[in-house]
Amino acid sequence: xxxxxxxxxxxxxxxxxxxxxxxxxxxxxxxxxxxxxxxxxxxxxxxxxxxxxxxxxxxxxxxxxxxxxxxxxxxxxxxxxxxxxxxxxxxxxxxxxxxxxxxxxxxxxxxxxxxxxxxxxxxxxxxxxxxxxxxxxxxxxxx
Length: 143
Description:
By secondary structure, this protein is mostly helical.
């Protein structure tokens, strides 16, 4: 359902959120190393996230990427919409372009239930909700 880039973006934002209380900023290399992702990919998606107002950046010797109080309280859905678009929750589970309730694919009914529940979770879960278990050592951002 979500692209690899979107999953990487969510992990990057969670990492930045984990630094919120200390007020630290993070660079591309640091984020990429922590989430075990390509620096090139992380760099491009961070710029997209800044343009989408999901995160912020500052230039200069004390610069880097960071998240504000408003941004840490945003729904995870905002990250997904900036990276994968608003239609990601309308896509067919088999990738068919003409799948619908009146012209369903073989998994349409079951997939729609799962897709809708996942969308609801992404609307309800805030970025801070995902970074708390990471900060407490109960969840991880790398496999």
